[in-house]
């Protein structure tokens, strides 16, 4: 049991408005070139993702904060897409149960079938999971229309720590917007981890703030509106940021000595509305 003098654990409440800011476009036209989206490993992505990787990609503290965020912003009824997904989407249990009961229709696009089959949001409705490489065909509508089905009209979409791998992000986000209802939202989750050989060149050359602005540019040039940047980095119960941009503790071990944490993965969301 914690003593009365023990520091508060990191906040999982992502609703504080002070942690949300408007994205402000700084560009009049798309300035990036295909070279910016090249990668050090240009071999077929099917080979890289051929074997399932049952890993989390972000640490447990970040997962807690992300799940809390999804619990607030993702509807429990309607249709949702998790793209560039894998074996876990980090949605809360309430949404998993809603998906099982078909109250919430969850669709998934990912690269590895065993991972998709294990995803608790998708495995009760296998026809809603699509194995596809969005770097080969960035048309989300086409991927969701396989088999001749009419693509679903989406209320929301998520992409967790994978936007840095897309070589045609604007095309992906534009086609996603086309199958999203008016007022629907997309949430692009960003941390500082990646497979560097598969991340686009430009991503590896930018600092955190430049990456957040870049993802805002993706949404802006894809036609999304009301673009915002949400800071989901660890905070104490008073809202004080606990880590720097790389996840290192700002106050050392004393701030969270009872957890003996020196690092907590940083986390942000760049989101837009149709």
TrEMBL record:
Q: Which top-level group of life is the source organism from?
A: Eukaryota
SUPFAM superfamilies per UniProt = S-adenosyl-L-methionine-dependent methyltransferases
State what protein this is by name.
Methyltransferase type 11 domain-containing protein
